[in-house]
Amino acid sequence: MSKKRSIILIVAILIILVALGLLGIYYYRILKNVKKNDIDKEDLSVNNDLLNDLNDTLDNEVTEDEFDDIINFVLFGSDSRDISNMEAGRSDTIMIVSINTIKKNIKLISIPRDTYVEVPGYGKTKINHAYAYGQEALSIKTINTNFNLNLTEYTTIDFNGLVNVIDKVGGIELSLTPEEKRYIGINDERLQNSGKVLLNGTEALKHSRNRTIGNDFTRASRQRDVMEALLYKIFSLDMKDILGMSNDLLSQVTTNINTLKYATLLSEVYSNKSSYLSNIMSKQVPTQEYASDQMIDGIYYFVSDIEKAKLDLYNTIYGN
């Protein structure tokens, strides 16, 4: 290589390094404002042999690289951060978000809030009680204990925060029935429109919490629809617009995730957004196929075959 070419290569490398450094500083300035709430990952009943368990259970083999390239975290939606109020402090939404960076897909997996499980230290009760008893740490420990998973990361958003996020991105589009439109108070020309309708944050929240039309499983499906629509809306924006509103969006959540790692993930997803957004799966686990409504001591529970639920989660997250 000639001396001139060597100098050009060195200059090009230096420019790239400076650009990466400036980008890192920019991400740091944005992400340092995220509300962090770390939890003791040593006390989450993490299944450290999950990869072996998967390969002993699933029909397909999961390689170590595939296993490492699937990112899972728990999304909690709560009425209140005040867990002294038992009703308000329960997690109204429990959703495992799974991002497969090899297959470039996103899976939104709801766990019904009335699912009958063993909450460590408290015995058998509804899974959403774990949040009231011990917030995110006990909730994640409960999921790992019952379904033999290795979850350690979470993001929590209260419902006022969800309203603000949706309004900040300009609303979301959802397909609603006329009955659902009336329930959330739509009485303008949108009531007559077929197809998707643009909802503001307050309307989207009321829709996601609708218990009147359908049942609690329909409600959980609406919550996944809202999350999916929000993903579509965010990634329809220019990256500069996303970064410009990052402080406002991220200020609405509390998390223990490595925000720099997720900044890299955001870039990866955005660069391949057509692939990710065309491969979003929405599901509930446990399902009604192997679970049933039961009254125990006068209280309603959704009682499932926990082993079948575990296998269902394994297949949903890691199966072909």
Quick take:
With 320 residues, the protein is of the alpha/beta class. It has 14 helices and 13 strands.
The count of helical stretches stands at 14
**Overall pLDDT confidence:** 83
Number of strands: 13
CATH topology of the largest domain: Aminopeptidase
Oligomer category: single chain
Task: Indicate the structural class.
Answer: alpha/beta
Full CATH superfamily name of the largest domain: LCP protein
Describe what this molecule looks like in 3D.
The protein is α/β, with parallel strands linked by helices and 320 residues long. The protein has 2 domains: 1-32; 37-318, Aminopeptidase, CATH 3.40.630. The protein is 48% helix and 21% strand. The protein contains 14 helices and 13 strands. The strands form 4 sheets. The chain has a 7-stranded mixed sheet with strand order 1-10-7-2-3-4-11, sandwiched between helices. Strand 12 and strand 13 form a beta hairpin. It is globular, with a radius of gyration of 22 Å. The termini are far apart. The model is unreliable at 13-26 and 81-88 (pLDDT under 50).
Q: Which SSEs are present, and which pair or pack?
A:
Elements: H1 3-31, E1 35-36, H2 50-57, H3 64-68, E2 70-78, H4 86-89, E3 91-100, E4 105-110, E5 116-119, E6 123-126, H5 129-147, E7 154-158, H6 159-168, E8 172-175, H7 178-183, E9 196-199, H8 201-208, H9 216-236, H10 239-244, H11 246-250, E10 253-255, H12 259-271, H13 273-277, E11 280-284, E12 291-296, E13 299-304, H14 306-318
Parallel strand pairs: 1-10, 2-7, 4-11
Antiparallel strand pairs: 2-3, 3-4, 5-6, 7-10, 8-9, 12-13
